[in-house]
Amino acid sequence: MINLIQKSDGIQYSVDKYINSRHISNVLFNIMRGGIFNDGYNIEINDFNKHIKYFNIRIWQKFENFLKYLPKSLNYSKLDLLIKDQNNYDLYRLFLEYLPLTFSRRHGDPSRPWNLFSINLKDDNGKKLLYYQGNWRDIFQNWEALSLSFPMYINGMIAKFVNATTADGYNPYHISRDGIKWELPDPNNPWSNIGYWGDHQIIYLLKLMEISYNYFPEKIVSWLEEELFSFSNVPYRIKSYEEITKDPHSTIEFDKELNKNIENLVPIYGADAKLLLNESEDVIKVNFTEKLFVSLLAKLSNFIPEAGIWMNTLRPEWNDANNALVGYGASMVTLYYIYRHLNFIEKLFKSIESSVFIISVEISEFLSKIFNIFKNYSSLLSQGFNDYQRKEITDQLGISGSKYREKIYRGFTGKKVQISKKKILDFIELSKSYIYQSITINRRKDGLYNSYNLINISNNDISIQYLYEMLEGQVALLSSDILPSDEVLDLLDKLKDSTLYRTDQESFLLYPNKELPVFLEKNIIPSEYVRESKILKRLIEIGDDTIISEDINHQYHFNGNFNNINYLKKALDKIKDGEVLDFTKEDYKIVLDIYEKVFNHKSYVGRSGTFYKYEGLGCIYWHMISKLLLAIGENIIWASERRADIDIMQKLIKHYFDVKRGIGAHKSPEKYGSFPFIPYSHTPLKGGVQQPGMTGQVKEDIITRFYELGVFVKEGQISFHPIILKKSEFNEPGLFMSEKYNIPYLGFTLCNILIVYLIDDLNGLELEMENGNTIKIDRYTLDKEYSSMIFKREPKINKVIIHLNSTDLLD
Where are the domains of the chain? Predict the structure, then answer.
């Protein structure tokens, strides 16, 4: 186990043993969720051969001799070059998807009945097995942290991600060594459900792409023109826009016939049969430009101005405690992330020399339709949208998405067309204008920002109902890089003063705590409502309790057997059909409106508004706190790069350490509720931390730890700039790793290469090489050659020594 942790830069040598212990725990649990690479960059060709054969039998047969004569073990970079030389995009696509991971399990919470998992280390014959599995939301986020220690695999992670996304812009539920898996409807299983999760194909992909661009800037840019990528063929069919607006809670159908055809084809073809195939049963391949825009356009076709991205694919966003928002909820969280996403892809396209790109005609038409809709309504950006205008543009965007889906469900034509770089950049710029306007509108009176909104849809308009403040929206907004540093500081100040701050734990709630009504306070119809309704008043008079009844205290109640408004509608129809009572459509609507006023079902968000644990009321959800910490860390870096005022920098850093203190590596067991060096899922209002270890929080904590250590990569070069590292973390002079230092030191590993910080008031760094030479550099940035050696974990560099001035560090 220690060996696994060491491989993933899990050992640090700070004088602060609490920080060291917490970091070891974070790395261990990140490995257990996302896996660890079996032998670094050494590839066992026999296992690689199995991978090719499992996924595509045709390709394996075509290259059987080539694969047969490869050495038993080969370095990943060398294998990359050999595969490229074969000039076959399918073979290279399968190479990119090959991730030799082990020690991975599916999900952090074993208490959930659908999360069956195991850590498979050996096959049925007792031989070593390289295997990983995870649900989409978990595995890619943990790979983000893993990639910092194994950056050569980052592009493989991205390829695995985008090749599994669908042509209609979404992703399957489950990713494993065996490929993709989707949920199946099962009427006998109450937990059975189908649908697509919300924001993850935007922010998780974006984070992976940002790492790739920083480490290997040319690679992802070159992909924009290379047809290396595929679409998964999930047998879900999203309904038409018209059907979705009629019932946003029933928007996806399961294609049994397609599912059966895929199952029949997999044994013959390989796991690639789960991908979109052409008439010749070859994988349809597209370039990275198409992959980027399909997911983005799917989101923008569900854009509701000033409300957010419509959540209508039966599954919630990252925080599934808000699962009841699906249907009439709109996500500002996703919109905040899309703004950052657009900034990034704009940078990609600006950095490439090509003036035109080749994409599928269906995707080109989809982009053009959304672009034209945005152009037609752009005059409203300065004045805002009324409810009628909002419905009009939402309809047009939704119909454009619906028509695109109709085409691709019938099958890609295979036709390609040119799209100019100028059109792409103009589209990105205009899309950003719409998103910026919606973000501005969603600033609340208390200075915070809306996270999710509710929409009310009628034939002619869409109105917006704003929900209460939530931490998730503030974190996403801070991550979007839309606010200048002074406004970031203002938002953090207001967040600290808000109802979300929980003083006893020095941290933040997901949502404000509230007292829920007890049973006897529910389902009470005010007497004035009864008097206003011809139907309710008459039913009371004739003593018909089918819909309404009066108790001994003369309070009125709806039938307690009604689970939702559909039960009420059926009862009203039955009364009219049975000629118990005659009424008009207006009378009918009045009763429905009263029912909604009494129960306010549309404002029901899920367990977040009814539970007191598991991301519920009064609950601190530690993963979100670590996301907040990371967002503040990012803003400190951005502020430093933009040379922000020193006073702003100091206040941002104070907020950072205030949030870090709340997370709790230094909390007492009494206050934390357990040993503080183990991460936990959440802390309810009454009690200590709950659900140890397997929380997504560990990913953010690993990344922010590298921020604190001042390790940054840009344009393929590693720099060391510890702007939020404290002097108190440095060890006193003494023996360290067989070498004695007469000055304070701190050590850690980066890609398994030892890094030593020395406070000696000197400048620059030194590379101690394997051959005994020492290379001195008078700055804090390594060039691409030396950085690449570290990325590749090459033993040519034994140690990197960083000379620091005491004034560079925090007191």
Answer: 132-466, 519-603, 710-811
